[in-house]
Each structure stands twice: as structure tokens, then as C-alpha cells.
Amino acid sequence: MDRPKIGAVDVGGGTRGIFGAGVLDRCMDLGIHFDFFVGVSAGCANGASFIAGQRGRNFRFYNEYAFRKEYMSIENWINTGSYLDLDYIYGTLSNDDGEYPLDYDALMADPCELEVVATNAVTGRAMYFRKEEIERNKYDFFKASSCVPGINKPYPVGKIPCYDGGLADPVPYKRVFRAGCDKAVIILTRPRETIRNSGKDRLLAAAIAHEYPKAAETWINRAYVYNRSIDEIFQLEKEGKVLIVAPLDIKGLKTLSQDHAALEDLYEQGLRAAEAIPGFIGK
To answer: How far is the C-alpha of 32 from the C-alpha of 6, rounded, in Å?
Structure first.
């Protein structure tokens, strides 16, 4: 009998993505392989390093590089209009000549499929990019998926301005089943019982509403979509089709928090949480 096809989803969440980094590093320790991986924002970076077999790479980005002013700072905002320098993160640091290159050859050679989620700023709809479309030293899909609205200008993919994939599809679990997966591991970066409130989103969406009204509408609707998706994966978990892996306590970490102790704790939680995965996938 053929083994089941296993998918994975990493929803990202800025520096809270270090939880997913811990989960995936432990998966490497345990020899766990996924057939299909879909990542949102920081989650796509986690997935790329995981598929490339680069254990510990993402931990260094969250707990070292993210503290540099070149990575994110008011200075960036003043000079470029964007708080996060996505070209620094996914270019200067990640290219072949960078400080910690993504192993492009290993990423492309591994049979695991990778899908990156971004939001089209004009239409407000989700866009999905496949691994086969990624070019060496041109990680624009990752940049677009990680482009936080309100603090960053939209990042262009070709001629399409894009925002963070979490606006349009914050928990893209349907993508793994659409790809034919039998089971899916869903990595959240908030405690599983978290219910999102749209109040803050409504206020922040006003910052982009004039230029990108459809993206603003999508942002306002994000909390509803997230909460509905969580309810749906809870049901799939009861049916044995999904394993939800989530932190117990995020220590007050926000999307772009810089706190070494809290980040390291979240990473350790990820390492421990991953111990549930072998039993779920039957390894």
C-alpha cells in the first residue's frame, strides 16, 4: 500500500515564526519529510530552509539578524518608507554570496513541493506561487509574502504589488488537501484557542484604504477568515486528518517583537511540540 501523502502548513507571524522554526528543526532531527508545504510570510522562509535541510538557519534569522537595524528599524522607514528591509532579509543575507545563503540547489532537488502565499494588493485576493517558479537569488515571492501592510510598501512581483499572504489566506490548509494530501500538520504561532479580533485590523487598514481599497477590505475581514479556518481545522483534527501544533504561551510576543529570552522560549516550545508529529503521520 502506498504511504499517505503528508502536507504541512506554517502560518508565519513575524518573529513568532521562531516557533515554526523549532518545530521544523525537530522534524529534521526525527527524519520527518513532508510531501507538500505551504507557507505564509515567515512560514514560507521556514519551509524553504526546512526543505533545503538547513537546520538552525531560521533560528539565527529570528534571534540574531532580526535585531539588526538593517533588518527592521525606524531608520529603514525614514529612508525607504518600509520598516522591514525585505531585500536585506531575502537578498543580502540569503543570496549565494550572503551571510547565510539559502541552499537553492538543495531546495530545488528535494521532492517536497513548496507553495508561497501572498496577497494581491490591487484585488485583495490570495496568490499562490510554486517552488518551480523560484529563481536563484531572486526570492521575490518570499518578500511579497512577508510584506506587512501598514509598515511596508507593497512588494512588487512583476508588475503586481503584493502584501503579506496572511491577509487573504491566513491559514491555507485547503491548499494541502487540494494538492492531494491525506493528512496535514498545521503550525500556528498563537495558542490554539486564540480568537482574533478585527478591531485593530480596522484601524490599521485605513492606512492603505485610499491606494489599495480591496486589500484594506481583505485586511478588515482577516479576523473572520482566520477564526473560521481555525474552527474548520479543529473539526478536521477530530476526524484525524489534521494535527494542530501550536505554542502554549507566546510570552506577549507581537509580530515584530525583539526579545531574546521570549524568542528562545518559543523556539524550545516548537522543538517539544514537534514530538507529536511522528505518531500522527505514522512514522
So the answer is: 10
Separation CA 116–CA 165 (nearest Å): 8
> Residue 30 and residue 234: Cα distance in Å, rounded?
25
Q: Are strands 242-245 and 183-187 parallel, antiparallel or unpaired?
A: parallel
Evaluated on CA atoms 72, 76, 77, 81, the torsion sign reads: negative
Sign of the dihedral defined by the CA atoms of residues 242, 118, 144, 37, in that order: positive
> For every one of its 283 residues, what pLDDT tens digit does the chain have, with 9 covering 90 and above?
578 999 999 999 999 999 999 999 999 999 999 999 999 999 999 999 999 999 999 999 999 999 999 999 999 999 999 999 999 999 999 999 999 999 999 999 999 999 999 999 999 999 999 999 999 999 999 999 999 999 999 999 999 999 999 999 999 999 999 999 999 999 999 999 999 999 889 999 999 999 999 999 999 999 999 999 999 999 999 999 999 999 999 999 999 999 999 999 999 999 999 999 999 999 7
Q: Do 152 and 84 contact (CB within 8 A), yes or no? A: yes
Task: Measure the CA–CA gap between 282 and 257, rounded to whole angstroms.
Answer: 36
Cβ neighbour number for residue 213 with a 10 Å cutoff: 13
Spell out the SS3 assignment of 208-246. Answer: HHCCCHHHHHHHHHHHHHHHHHHHHHHHHHHCCCEEEEC
pTM: 0.97
| Euclidean distance between CA atoms 31 and 172, whole angstroms | 25
Q: Decide: 27 and 277 in contact? Cβ < 8 Å.
A: yes
